[in-house]
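hey so i finally got around to running the thing on that chain from the lab meeting. sorry it took forever, my laptop kept dying and i had to restart like 3 times. anyway pasting the input first so we r on the same page abt which one it is
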Amino acid sequence: MRERRILVVEDERTIAESVAARLRVEGFAVEIAGDGPTAVARFRACQPDLVVLDVMLPGFDGLEVCRRIQADRPVPVLMLTARDDETDLLVGLAVGADDYLTKPFSMRELAARVHVLLRRVERAAAAAPAALTVGDVEINQAERRVWRDGVEVRLTPTEFDLLVHLAGRPRAVLPRERLLADVWGWADGSGTRTVDSHVKALRRKLGADLIRTVHGVGYALEVQP
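ok and heres what got predicted. didnt touch it at all, straight out
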């Protein structure tokens, strides 16, 4: 099996080296970048399986890094933020981050989040049937590609997994807590704003009419005639 590679993007050298050391102990190959431009260049050079990405960076910030790397190739992104600011977190999720940690964090929790993200992507790819069609939305689960009305739409790994989960149960209203448990693997039911942010991203990319909000409950995928 190919050694999985992680890119750590963090301008505080002590934190970057500590994160890299822990991930290497976990069995990953690790590359480090300390600023925005270097991060994008390293991403293209090493083709990592996952990116650990700090928000505050010199050159350009982590949000811009996330936009650029997701435009190149969808990849799981674990974003690090220095404060628990809801705006920062929602913007980070909107530009393609899959999960986030607020500093200070434990290396044990970071490693656990990395394993969960990678397992989710690998499990979805292994279990996926070749194709799924709901209305005018076509989903190739083996290749993790999506089209609406014949036009391909690029989704992040978590956006794709959320869409597949909703598409597997068209018209059924799925509570936010269930989506968190099934898609993100968060059993405690916290972090519903994460679900909301990813739904907004899917609507922006695939059309506002695709997912219906059931206020106080959750979301349902609308099947177009």
